[in-house]
Amino acid sequence: MAHVNAPWAGSVTPVAPPPEAIPHTSTLVYAGIVTGAWSGLLSLLVYGLGRLLGVPFEMVTPFGHVLGAVPWYLPLLVPLVAGVLGGYLSALALGRPHAGRIVFWAGTGIALLSCIVPLAQSSEVLLSSRLWLLVPHLITWFLVVPQLARIVADSEPGMTMVRA
After folding, report:
1. What is the radius of gyration, based on Cα positions, of the chain?
2. pLDDT > 90 fraction of the chain, expressed in percent and rounded
3. Are 125 and 69 in contact (CB under 8 A)?
4. Which pLDDT value is given to residue 18?
């Protein structure tokens, strides 16, 4: 059991960062790149598995209203872009009270809004395509949002390690 006066007692990580290691925008963008890349790779695996199982991955384009297959590179690139944008947006909460919670719930809200795209497709799009296109959104939320929220939480006032 940790001592009550332990320097990490208020941190969301096992050991809070020292004051000179408080996260910055670059830290969050780097975390967004790493988690977004992993999300993209896992999403690409899901896409490949779905294609092997015969899922057409067709959807109506937002502008053209034409039914077309999702290109293979989109499940790789979109989560990466989402991770980088998430890193930049998370930087807006740095140093604020409850920053970790703000980033977690804002990221969750954005992820839920992104789920509208596959779910609100027209009736021409098969249910299997809609559900398989939803999985990368969930993967990206699961990997990106909690990590960014954890990093931002260590920038909250009073969360850094106090030097003796």
Report:
1. 19
2. 65
3. no
4. 65
pLDDT in tens, 99-151: 999 999 999 999 999 999 899 888 888 999 999 999 999 999 999 999 999 99
SS3 per residue for the chain: CCCCCCCCCCCCCCCCCCHHHCCCHHHHHHHHHHHHHHHHHHHHHHHHHHHHCCCCCEEECCCCCCEEECCCCHHHHHHHHHHHHHHHHHHHHCCCCCHHHHHHHHHHHHHHHHCHHHHCCCCCCCHHHHHHHHHHHHHHHHHHHHHHHHHHHCCCCCCCCCCC
The rounded distance, in Å, linking the Cα atoms of 35 and 31 is 6
